[in-house]
Design brief:
With about 230 residues, the chain is an alpha+beta fold. The chain is built from seven helices and eight strands, in the order E-H-E-E-E-E-H-E-E-H-E-H-H-H-H. It has one domain: Alpha-Beta Complex (Nucleoside Triphosphate Pyrophosphohydrolase), CATH 3.90.79. Pfam families: Nudt16-like. It comes from Pampusana beccarii.
């Protein structure tokens, strides 16, 4: 069951639930968490988006010495932004999971998520009233690779989705290679927050390493000329 799925409903007569986990990484604006139960009680003025992180333990080593830890899938979108598979769900006609699976079927086709894969919900900032629901499913590395192959043959490939990418979860000795450089890319909506939140909650990357990676992206970068001069 997902790490937050047990907090999705509030049984009658139950006491107050413990505080919901927060990201707590300096430099990343915090989003307001809410339980699945609270999210389902929001009025009709709210839109619901559902996205999923598919991942697998990866025993591989980069250059024979850097542990890869996990393979985590994201997408390069048509607008050049990174995001997770998923989209908006019309709650008038679909449950969260049914709506999510309809969208996943267009781009992946060979995976179906359930309420047990539910991880968290957050209210988003901005002029639109959107609650972002996030799911996470652990697969085997072979299953993940099958999804990558299937995605190339989906009807959305090359149109709304330009391709799947794996997130590097390591940081190289220069303190930028790997996760810091990846986080310096542009992400759609809540995708960057959800990535960091899932990596922390699922204990895939230590919190201090996440904070270091985010901090590295906020340092002024040297120009190509300065880098060339420093190398000579």
């Amino acid at each position: 069951m997902g790490a937050m799925a047990a907090m999705g409903a509030l049984p009658a007569g139950a006491g107050t639930l413990p505080p919901l986990p927060t990201l707590g990484v300096p430099g990343v604006p915090e989003l307001k968490p809410l339980t699945r139960y609270e999210a389902m009680r929001l009025g009709p003025g709210w839109s619901h988006s559902c996205h999923a992180m598919l991942y697998a333990p990866n025993p591989g080593m980069l250059f024979g010495r850097i542990p890869l830890r996990y393979a985590v899938l994201m997408q390069m979108r048509f607008d050049g932004l990174l995001g997770f598979p998923g989209g908006f769900v019309d709650r008038r006609y679909w449950s969260l999971e049914d709506g999510l699976n309809r969208v996943l079927g267009l781009g992946l086709g060979c995976v179906r998520l359930t309420e047990a894969d539910y991880l968290c919900s957050h209210l988003t900032e901005g002029p639109h009233r959107v609650v972002a629901h996030f799911y996470a499913r652990q697969l085997t590395l072979e299953e993940l690779h099958t999804i990558e192959i299937s995605a190339v043959h989906s009807r959305d490939h090359g149109l709304e989705v330009m391709g799947m990418v794996r997130v590097p979860l390591y940081t190289q000795k220069d303190r930028m290679g790997g996760l810091p450089n990846f986080l310096a890319n542009s992400f759609v909506g809540t995708a960057k927050f959800q990535l960091l939140f899932a990596l922390k909650i699922l204990n895939m990357v230590p919190e201090e390493k996440l904070a270091e990676a985010v901090a590295a992206t906020q340092k002024p970068k040297k120009s190509a000329i300065d880098q060339a001069a420093g190398a000579t």
